Amino acid sequence: MKKFFKILGGVLGVVVLAVIGFVVWVQARGIPTYDKPTASTVAVAATPERLELGRSLVLASCNDCHMNKKNNKLSGQQMLDTPKEFGSLYSANITQDKDHGIGNWTDGEVIALLRTGIGRDGRYRIIMPHFVHMSDEDVNSVVAFLRSDHQWVQADATPTHAQEPSLLVKTLVNTVMKPTPMPTKAVVAPAPTDQLAYGRYLVVGRYQCFECHSKSFETNNALEPEKSEGYLGGGNHLLDVNGVDIVSRNLTGDSGTGIGDWNAGDFTKAVKFGMSPNGPLHAPMPKYSTMSDGDAAAIFAYLQSIPKIKNATPEDKGAVAVQ
Question: What is the C-alpha to C-alpha distance for residues 173 and 162, in angstroms, rounded to an integer?
């Protein structure tokens, strides 16, 4: 028996040393860097259609994080709606400033960042969504707008604040949170006439609804979104700008805890204007005011087609279920 406990003690000692060693390594390495992604050298053509779509996409997907309310430009700010356990995280200056923004970046380098999460310096961007499933046309539209003469993107010399990640975030980005690869072929959005396929594209490609509305950022699967734990079943804990805990809503078709008892009109009002059958929606849920009614209807149709998850969230006046 003494020999058993001696062996057990030795094993536990090795495990403890391994854990301590891992923690020390994570703290020392911090946020990892990677080889710079191969970027296209072809400049994006700025057509009127791309500028219009790009403004809509930037408003929907970039403004909430990057908009500095002090100067009304996309010069970055502290991200107060990230979990406190993540430390203090900051969005980058993405204006056309050549020293502090992306003014010296090529269009290909911007696209590579949007696709992979890796910047031209090789640094991995924390929290930033990876638009790996977004169509080439949508990505090009975002880049065209970022190069435009719109006030939001005009050069601003506000330095990007250094990240202050917690040990948890350092651990996550050195283990489960990884860059995504550049697409190896053209990414084309389905035709809007194929409502279900187009709705899925909007959910996983253009707007990435699954990122917030699945169980947790930590278990989301960027490459295969449907494999994210609790896919679109809600329960992810977010913060509003006042640090109040907000739980994402169940978007599946469950009639008791999801949106199975909503109709397309209910969903359109919620996603565009922030007014649901249960009352007003709260930040950090954005209002997609420029989304067309047809796109909203396609998203709703797709959400009704996915597997239902029974998961009550606070707006259902019930306790949050464990998925």
Answer: 16
116-164 pLDDT per residue, tens: 999 999 999 988 889 999 999 999 999 999 999 999 999 999 999 999 9
Domain count, the chain: 2
The enclosing domain of 271 has a CATH number of 1.10.760
Domain extent, residue 237, equals: 195-316
pLDDT digits (tens, 9 = 90+) for 48-66: 999 999 999 999 999 989 9
Same structural domain, 201 and 232: yes
Q: Looking at the domain assignment, is residue 10 inside a domain?
A: no
The string of pLDDT tens digits covering residues 157-193 is 999 999 999 998 889 888 878 899 999 999 999 999 9
